[in-house]
Backbone:
């Protein structure tokens, strides 16, 4: 030790500093995606339907990133209609400009390309992306997102032997364009369930099935997402236990499960150890809230294949809970808790964080429902308001027009159901840095799920029937898991908290694609009056225009006092500023090394 010179010590320190700086900033990941229709994939043989591929792949390619990485995705729209991509669960800190839904972005027109640039800021976990316009998600275009921990952060379980992305979702047997055209009249429900785009094992109408090869005694991480349009599913692996470890960016208290319910839009990680006799085993996902009929195409079946095994999977498919058993599903939902002691990205990463002492700033009671009494067509609603998608992206309208002519702020009820059904562009103010409580009610027959972009939901309670303020005393405020998508059971309610520290225009939607497409959504506008661009990012340089805003707004008058929508410095300047700090630290590191 004594022989280690002072200079060497400084050098090591400097090196460490450079190392930490480069990791905290994240790497840049550049992707080029060509989004196109392919009719030759045929998940169901004999059906010549369009499938949306990315660079020829269905599902699309993995985005494999690490916390704080900057993702640049240059998306080429080779479809015959407009396209937008969203990054389900990626919070887009200070940057709703990249969220890729109709309220935040003008669509990428056919034949054009547009580059999304966003950061995996302070997040870890399992997510997925999908197209958000024109019911395209029903045709594919989705793919997995992993946000890995920075190597300096501990992960609360040993490194698995390997990781598998498992995107499971229901599938229509028709072209998504035909399904879309029939949605408000004679819509038929999806009749298939695909696993990574492949049909059920053993089904004669499919050519391929999904299979994962494991080595005896080793442990694997499965990142399971429900990328479907309609059905919640129950997931299980024959003869194997699953250890639940993560959901949508939160490490959970680790619980051992035989089966796991995954609702539309949700993601989970489970660890599975290959601890059975070397053979092949069924991996199954069966829909909930639909009779256990002989419609075997609606049960996704894949294979867990032990290395060198020549024994095909056999016996009956492993049984799950009764598909109508809501109680066991709620019991499981309540048992998914946040692990408060593990190191991870969270508001207070150093210690515990619970919401037992927060003061609520706002409370919304939102009823998801359906109405036919509007214009003769079926519309899905929130508090009897069906969202009317304007031609101008709301975020753009907010920036350039203060919303004028596009939406009226706070014009729709958030505490009761409107006694008259209406169509409207439903934008509600969320108090910046306030805690919002939302209680969701489900008036549908099926399980619904809700997603808020920009934030995590602290899932504090699930219940049946009417909700009254007294139910607040039953909330789990100690260790509610934080996630982006929460299920709401039929005739039931789900209560969540969200901390609105992320200014922007944020989509609050049903993840059920039909509900969403036919109007069950709204936007929450979280406004920070401070014009400092470090607070909310300025529009990107490649901003697209549409609807009422076809050109950049004129610059604001010189030196106005209240500046709700100032023209901020260009993004180039902003990034130059960050890298200057980076360089400063690197130079400092070298100076210390001298
Ligand atoms: C994802 O990135 C991590 C960290 O860089 C790397 O260890 C891993 O091998 C990558 N996985 C894939 C599938 O590319
Ligand atoms: C479109 O792609 C080209 C590269 O092929 C790129 O230079 C350009 O910036 C992209 N356009 C947008 C708006 O991202
Ligand atoms: C929570 O995480 C800690 C730290 O990684 C770990 O030791 C502990 O076992 C976890 N607790 C549960 C209940 O999973
Ligand atoms: C509902 O159907 C009618 C008639 O086909 C069509 O004109 C209308 O655009 C549809 N509405 C929606 C929201 O798809
Ligand atoms: C399922 O198939 C079995 C045997 O083929 C038959 O006995 C049973 O009635 C079928 N059930 C339904 C709901 O169709
Ligand atoms: C599988 O077979 C290969 C080739 O014979 C062998 O190297 C490997 O060890 C075997 N693996 C197991 C788990 O038996
Ligand atoms: C489910 O729980 C509710 C409320 O606790 C109870 O009324 C109902 O009977 C239960 N249903 C079943 C099938 O156990
Ligand atoms: C809890 O909230 C009360 C009132 O809002 C506040 O005075 C107190 O400091 C808070 N306690 C903690 C530990 O944050
Ligand atoms: C939760 O946080 C509050 C302060 O906000 C604290 O008083 C309480 O002890 C915490 N509970 C636990 C179980 O850590
Ligand atoms: C923007 O619109 C809001 C109402 O939506 C209004 O209260 C505010 O005064 C407007 N600001 C400007 C600068 O016009
Ligand atoms: C919703 O609107 C419809 C049609 O305007 C009306 O008949 C219905 O009563 C409303 N629902 C509620 C719960 O008020």
Residues:
């Amino acid at each position: 030790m004594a022989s280690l010179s002072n200079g060497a010590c400084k050098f090591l320190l400097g090196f460490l500093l450079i190392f930490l700086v480069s990791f905290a900033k994240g790497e840049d990941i550049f992707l080029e995606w060509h989004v196109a229709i392919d009719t030759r994939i045929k998940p169901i043989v004999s059906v010549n339907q369009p499938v949306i591929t990315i660079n020829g792949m269905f599902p699309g390619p993995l985005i494999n990133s690490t916390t704080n990485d900057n993702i640049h995705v240059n998306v080429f729209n080779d479809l015959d209609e407009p396209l937008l991509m969203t990054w389900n669960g990626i919070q887009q800190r200070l940057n709703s400009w990249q969220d890729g839904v109709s309220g935040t972005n003008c669509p990428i027109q056919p034949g054009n390309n547009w580059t999304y640039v966003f950061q995996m800021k302070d997040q870890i976990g399992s997510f997925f992306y999908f197209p958000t316009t024109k019911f395209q998600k029903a045709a594919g275009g989705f793919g997995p997102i992993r946000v890995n921990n920075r190597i300096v952060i501990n992960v609360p379980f040993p490194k698995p032997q390997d990781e598998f992305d498992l995107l499971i979702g229901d599938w229509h047997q028709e072209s998504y364009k035909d399904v879309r055209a029939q949605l408000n009249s004679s819509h038929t429900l999806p009749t298939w369930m695909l696993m990574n785009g492949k049909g059920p094992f053993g089904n004669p109408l499919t050519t391929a099935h999904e299979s994962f090869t494991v080595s005896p005694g080793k442990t694997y991480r499965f990142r399971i997402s429900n990328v479907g349009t309609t059905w919640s599913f129950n997931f299980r692996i024959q003869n194997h236990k699953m250890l639940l470890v993560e959901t949508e960016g939160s490490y959970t208290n680790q619980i051992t499960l035989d089966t796991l319910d995954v609702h539309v839009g949700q993601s989970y990680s489970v660890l599975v150890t290959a601890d059975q006799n070397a053979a092949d085993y069924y991996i199954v996902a069966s829909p909930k809230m639909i009779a256990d009929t002989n419609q075997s195409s609606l049960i996704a079946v894949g294979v867990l294949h032990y290395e060198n095994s020549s024994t095909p999977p056999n016996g009956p498919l492993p049984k799950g809970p009764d598909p109508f058993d809501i109680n066991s599903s709620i019991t499981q939902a309540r048992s998914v808790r946040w692990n408060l002691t593990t190191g991870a990205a969270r508001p207070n990463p150093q210690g515990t964080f619970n919401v037992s002492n927060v003061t609520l700033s706002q409370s919304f009671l939102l009823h998801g429902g359906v109405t036919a009494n509007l214009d003769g067509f079926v519309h899905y609603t929130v508090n009897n308001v069906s969202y009317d998608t304007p031609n101008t992206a709301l975020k753009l309208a907010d920036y350039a027009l203060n919303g004028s002519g596009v939406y009226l702020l706070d014009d729709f009820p958030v505490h009761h159901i409107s006694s008259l059904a209406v169509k409207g562009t439903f934008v509600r103010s969320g108090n910046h840095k306030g805690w919002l409580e939302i209680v969701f009610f489900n008036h549908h027959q099926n399980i619904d799920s809700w997603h808020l972009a920009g934030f995590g939901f602290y899932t504090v309670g699930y219940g049946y029937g009417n909700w009254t303020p007294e139910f607040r005393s039953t909330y789990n405020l100690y260790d509610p898991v934080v996630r982006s998508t929460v299920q709401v059971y039929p005739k039931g309610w789900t209560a969540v908290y969200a901390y609105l520290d992320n200014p922007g225009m944020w989509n609050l939607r049903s993840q059920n694609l039909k509900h969403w497409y036919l109007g069950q959504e709204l936007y929450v506008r979280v406004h920070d009056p401070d014009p400092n661009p470090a607070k909310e990012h300025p529009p990107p340089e490649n901003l697209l225009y549409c609807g009422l805003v076809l050109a950049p707004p004129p610059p604001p008058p010189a030196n106005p006092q209240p500046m709700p929508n100032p023209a901020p410095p260009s993004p180039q300047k902003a990034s130059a500023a960050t890298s200057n700090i980076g360089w400063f630290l690197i130079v400092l590191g070298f100076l210390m090394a001298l």
In short: The first strand starts at residue 28 and ends at 38. Residues 14-22, 562-594 have pLDDT under 50 and may be disordered. Residues 215-216, 307-308 surround 2-acetamido-2-deoxy-beta-D-glucopyranose (ligand 6) (CB under 6 Å). The chain has three domains: 28-148, 162-335, 360-526.
